[in-house]
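Human:
I keep going back and forth on a fold encoding question. Comparing notes only helps if you start from a blank page. Show me how you would write down a chain together with its backbone fold. Write it directly below this note and I will take it from there.

Assistant:
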Amino acid sequence: MFFEKHNIQRIRRKGFTLVELLIVIIIIGILAGALLLVAGAGTDKASASKIVSNLRNLQSAAVMYYSDYNDWASNDITLLDEFMDGDPGDGYEMSGDSHVYYDGGLISTADGGVNLKLEMMANNGDVPLFDSTGESYDKGDKAVYMKVR
C-alpha cells in the first residue's frame, strides 16, 4: 500500500494548469487588441488617402475640361466623366468652378479617424485641403474641399 501511494505521487501529470492557460489567453488577447488598433489606424489613413487621390483626379479632370472647352464645368461633375478613368464614387461634387469636394459617409462623424488623418494631411502641408469657409481643413468639418483654380 505504501508503494502504491508513493508511486502515484511520482507519476508526472501531463497537460497545463488552469493558471497557465489563463495567462496564455490573456497574452493573446492583449496582442490581438494591439493588432486591431494598428489595423484601424491603417484603414483610416487608406480611406483619407483615397479621398485625397479622388479629389486630385477630379481637379485634374476639371482643368482638362477647361482646356478642351474653354469653360469650367460649374456644379456639374458628370461633365468630367470623359476625363476620368473611373467613377470616384458617391459624395464627390463641384462647388461652382473653383472647388471640388467630398461630402460622403467616410467623414460623416466629427470624431472619426478619417477626419483626423485628413486634418493631419492638411496641417502638414502635404495636401491643400479646406473646409467650406476656405480655412484649412480640421476634423470638425464634414466636407473636405480642394481648389480647382
In short: The longest strand covers residues 92-95. The mean pLDDT is 81. The chain has one domain: 20-147.
